[in-house]
Amino acid sequence: MKQIEAAKRLISIDRDEEVCVFTKMDLKTIFREDNGHALDATLKGLLRANILTRAVNGVYVYALTDHRADLIEHIARAMRRGEYNYVSLESALSEYGVISQVPMCLTVMTTGRRGRYQTPFGAVEFTHTERQWVDIIHDAVEVGRPLKLAKKHVAWRDLKRTGRNIYEIDEDLLFDGEALEENDDHTHNTRPGGP
Question: How many whole angstroms from its chain centre is CA 171?
Answer without folding.
Answer: 28
